[in-house]
């Protein structure tokens, strides 16, 4: 089977510490038919210089004329797709060598799947893997309806944006990332995608997410009220989406689990950062 083209987008702002390592993980992928688009959101450090110095012809740097915010830059990624699949990679994350190949093959062999995800290695600021997060016990296909229900009730089973590969021809139907959200912006989008098809889960850690004191996620974990307000918006958006078919019991369960999960994250952040 001919390799499908994968567009890898990196929305970035002031990531000079990590961007080189992230790019290296992409250029060393075992899957060859990729393009790497770095969308810089008016960084004030050396991020653009580091990207420009990369000699790999598959890397393209796009500079925004003005800072359009994190969500705006995520949406910019959706406008630069030139492939069959889209992989958004956060500028301080890392993909294992076979990540793109295994996820692209999963989508190619299973046309009803619109999302491919995997297990994830969680590492601390010293780049030591703390544990491997697995959403399911084995590799499997989860119906979009079931994944939506499970994830909404429990937590973001998809993981960070870096862990998700999307089928490009479904993105227009799903729309763009919601400018009303911040912390849960990717989660709400993945739930929306689940109304369009199934999810393929690979029970192997194919991406690496770092817990760092200067990361956006670390900052947000400490902003309890902001996260709860963000979640209220998430619930409203999901409730107002007729394709999701959420009932009151599911919403109550979701709100309860969000508060419990947030308390655990606060403790986890204090222990490992």
What's a concise summary of this model?
Helix content is 39%, strand content 22%.
Q: Strand content of the residues, in percent? A: 15-25%
Count of alpha and pi helical runs: 10
> What's the number of extended β-strand segments?
10
How would a crystallographer describe the biggest sheet?
10 strands, mixed
Mean pLDDT: 92
Low-confidence sequence ranges: none
Backbone CA Rg: 18 Å
The H/E string reads EHEHEHEEHEEEHEHHEHHH
Helix content: 25-40%
The rounded distance between the terminal residues' Cα atoms is 45 Å
Oligomer kind = single chain
Shape: globular
Based on helices, strands and strand pairing, what is the structural class?
alpha/beta
Overview of this protein structure:
It is a single chain. The protein is of the alpha/beta class and 273 residues long. Helix content is 39%, strand content 22%. The chain is built from 10 helices and 10 strands. It has helices spanning 19-27, 47-52, 69-78, 99-109, 144-153, 171-174, 185-194, 216-221, 224-239, 248-272, and strands at residues 6-12, 34-40, 59-63, 85-88, 94-95, 113-123, 129-133, 140-142, 165-167, 198-210. Strands 1, 2, 3, 4, 5, 6, 7, 8, 9 and 10 form a 10-stranded mixed β-sheet that branches. β2, α2 and β3 (59-63) form a beta-alpha-beta unit. α9 runs antiparallel to α10 (248-272). The radius of gyration is 18 Å and the shape is globular. The mean pLDDT is 92.
